[in-house]
Amino acid sequence: MYIKSSTTRRTFVIVGALCALPMAHAQSVFPARPITLVHPYAAGGPADTMARALAKQMESRLKQPVIVEAKAGGAATIGTGHVARSKPDGHTLLLGTSAGHVVTPLMQRIPYDGIGDFSFIAVVANQPNVLVAHPSLGVEKLQDLVALARKQPGTLNYASAGTGGATHLGAEAFAQAAQIKITHVPYGGAAPALKDLLGGQVQLGMLNLAATKAFIADGRLKALAYGGAMPSPLIPHVPTLSQAGYAATATSTWYTLAAPKGTPADVIETLHRVVADARQDPAYLAVLDGMGAEQMDLSPAETTAFVKRDQAAMTTLLTHLNLLAK
After folding, report:
1. Cβ(82)–Cβ(76) under 8 Å?
2. What's 268's domain CATH number?
3. How far apart, in whole angstroms, are the C-alpha atoms of residue 233 and residue 8?
4. Which domain holds residue 166?
């Protein structure tokens, strides 16, 4: 029915606006639907394990399903870029690493800004890497490897979890410091790298302790050096790279939780509290401890500063290794 009265029309407008208020408020509630947590590596690897442990903690606190998606490839840029292009509402998140945020953007042109296109939430964990060898190589300690590699320059190969990541750059930095030549074989994550390493298709690997500790324990891999500042209680008999005289080559894989740039500050703070609260759960801590992961309690601002410091350090390292994009 058409009403000509301006007073009546104003009444309808006011009533309509008031009726819309609850709907607008409901749409601002976070989370309003299931959350997707993306990581840029192969399913079954350390990133996948960590993402699933975090997702379980998020579900219990946010009361929404959290779906883990492995989007591997492109030296961690496929998954990272996917999240950068996602709607900034907190419902698509990234468990990211230095490879996708820092290193690959420094080594090649990519369609996103590894730092500027994200709102960083927290450092989830920091995992030092370990240099391991297939038993068939016949080396018992790091000095044996260096001696062998010098006798056979370029013939030994090593697996990494992907070009541009800490596992790749750590091995390259070590090789340069030791004055040896070893051939890089990149994979789309730790899981496929381990498969070929265990099968003897590659002889060496610079990988997370989480991915390798079970195989070190059963003798299928020989641990030569650990990349942490101190020996790991999980492999206390393995010397650190620093103890072996290669302190500058020690690297680790860090994991941050990030959202697309423009995500509301209150959503970022809610997610940060979730990560902080998760650290109070013994079951969650047991997963991280079992992976040899160190924890870092940093605010969103401190996390952003942490990533920027890594970018500065990686710029120096890549320049030294002649890997920085021209």
Report:
1. no
2. 3.40.190.150
3. 76
4. 128-249
Q: Provide the b/e sequence for 189-207 (b: ≥16 CB within 10 Å).
A: bbbbbbebbeeeebbbbbb
Nearest 10 degrees: Cα torsion 300, 303, 304, 309 = 160
CA 113, distance to chain mean position in Å, is 16
Q: Identify whether residues 174 and 211 lie together within a single domain.
A: yes
What is d(CA 263, CA 171) in angstroms, rounded to the nearest whole number?
36
Residue 171 and residue 112 in one domain: no
Please say if the pLDDT value at position 16 is more than 80.
no
**Using CA atoms, how far apart are residues 295 and 96, in angstroms rounded to an integer?**
15
- Section 135-158 average pLDDT: 96
C-beta separation of 88 from 260 below 8 A: yes
pTM of the entire predicted model: 0.78
- Reported in sequence order, the residue ranges of 144-196 that DSSP labels E, i.e. its strands, are 157-160, 183-186
- Total domains, the chain: 2
- What is the per-residue burial (b if ≥16 Cβ within 10 Å, else e) of 112-121? bebbebbbbb
pLDDT tens digits, one per residue of 268-311? 999 999 999 999 999 999 999 888 888 899 999 999 999 999 99
